[in-house]
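Re: that chain you flagged

S.,

Sorry for the slow reply, it's been a week of failed gels. I finally had a moment to sit down with the sequence you sent. For the record, here it is as I used it:
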Amino acid sequence: VVPDVFVKQTMIETYQKSTDLPETIPVFPLDGALLLPRSQLPLNIFEPRYLQMIDTAMSSDRIIGMIQTDSAIPDEDPPALCEIGCAGRITSYAETPDQRILITLTGISRFKIIAEVPSAAMFRTVAVDFGSFDDDLIAGLGEEDVDRDGLLTAFRSYLDANDLQADWQEVTSVSNETLVNALSMMSPYQARDKQALLEAIDLKSRAEVLVALTTMAMASHGAGEDGRLQ
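Prediction finished late last night. Pasting the structure tokens below so you have them in one place:
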């Protein structure tokens, strides 16, 4: 069953323009994880450095950046980071008896890393520029340009190939922005493909990248022996 990620999102109204966002943020490098504006990403935090990061964020503006490592620059310590990530605000928080923290991040805006900031903390902090992504703060921008039918056709083909089901009443009721971003986040593609989805210039382009990735996966792998995409 497809995860229930088709939830109605609302923008965090605190952030109306890029200058409302901090100039430095802690970052959580996590390859394959994708956060997009006004979408929600649940995270299970257990490593000491990221527990410290969450504690620090909760005591300030509750903002952290999701970022992937740059596979084109191997063997660095700490690993090189991709230039573009997405900042999110911690909008739910729970502690567990075994000292884990369960949070939900709600995406605010993408950012470009300017430089890494030296810190005595266990986690990494970067100086960022949000100015190139002012449009991320406008809910629903470009929805009318999305080929919704083409996107849903590709999604249905993927489900059929993998013997998965979706609540089509829910899927068809959500906005184009929620649909595109939710499908991008739940897609099973590699980290470099997730980065391409993140860096797509607008919602229409992101939908086109998603359809292209799905079409290529179906064409190159087809249905495996178990009827699933490999």
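What I noticed first: Residues 1-11, 223-230 have pLDDT under 50 and may be disordered.

Talk soon,
D.
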